[in-house]
Amino acid sequence: MTGWLAVAGLGPGDEAMVTPEVRAALAEATDVIGYFPYVARVAPRDGLTLHASDNRVEIDRAQLALQLAASGARVVIVSSGDPGVFAMASALFEALETWPDLQTLDIRILPGITAMLAAAAHTGAPLGHDFCCINLSDNLKPWPLVERRLRLAAQADFAMAFYNPRSVSRPHQFARALDILREECGPDRLITFARAVTTPEERIVTVSLAEAVPEMADMRTVVIVGNAATRRVGRFVYTPRSAV
Amino acid sequence: MTGWLAVAGLGPGDEAMVTPEVRAALAEATDVIGYFPYVARVAPRDGLTLHASDNRVEIDRAQLALQLAASGARVVIVSSGDPGVFAMASALFEALETWPDLQTLDIRILPGITAMLAAAAHTGAPLGHDFCCINLSDNLKPWPLVERRLRLAAQADFAMAFYNPRSVSRPHQFARALDILREECGPDRLITFARAVTTPEERIVTVSLAEAVPEMADMRTVVIVGNAATRRVGRFVYTPRSAV
User: Is the whole-model pTM more than 0.90?
Assistant: First the structure.
């Protein structure tokens, strides 16, 4: 019995954005592990055990996956979006670091459409030039580091994509982030709030930084800030390929 | 006859990474337009015209696509990777900006697996924390701006992904980029050269910045530089989720 472990990205929500590679891994799996809304996207079938867990138990989930694969199971950890972008892949390697015996296991990371790419596509092409991608949550890093990164990213004139912009437990930080962006980028810079992208609840709104208010974002929102050249064309927002 | 235009990402090369959404658009298309190696990935069939063109004619390609769609054709512009990341989506909107009459056309951008996500997945999880994505080509921006962005990105302690790191026409610039990175990040920082990811020629090598030489990259290489915490675990390279 040869076990393996795949960490697979289910994309932002639309089943038509799940890659055939990921579908094939799910079809061969004996065990699927993940945060419950992602596991709920996998159809039950004979021979497949679904292990759904709550948020914030990423390391437990990774350890369970490693143990099952080591005992011969074919395991898929499911992430939304891409597993390598603020998702389960890093948590898996953190767990693997403490278990050197398992480092020769058959482990594969299967990429997916991360939320910012789907959000950008449905907005136009706001990430069409150099950009950065920042997780605004301070669960795993100090907030002053977030502020510092925002300022440096603005000074580099990167377009920016933000994950986890605003949660109930820290409602004031995103207001602070908007203040920093207004200071660094001026009031006219375009900002897009893309909520629940590719799902039936998708809602995408673009305003200027002057018009932006924190309530436009929640934890299901990806926020995209343009660079100095980002502009509207018809109903779209795009960033030109060239810069001066 | 109602025409439409989709700009679709074919992913990094492996057909198992093409999304069903993109497959469906290709199946309905009357015309496929793109750089010839990407058009070569689309199977010919009755009722489908393939329009392959050379590199650096992005605006011509976008104009042809808009004209065909406006006359009732079902048009797919194909990009490798994701169309919104250093690919055809921004070029399309640049062309659309000059033709206001066509701004009500049915236009959709279909996301794909961009090269850095596939490269990161096959390396481990080097982009598992805040990161930036920079096109190192100076075709469309002045080289000093690239240097400035590299320094600011390093000061922000972003992991970094570089597209188009090195071409025959500008062999010295990537050497200069490596010098800047060594200056800002020190000699021990990990750098990954991921060439022809997901194709039969895939080759992924990780070294320290001290060991990196420009010849490790060419135009088929995505380069990923870790942040200060990026490290090896077994045969993988990953960036932890947390930062201090």
Answer: yes
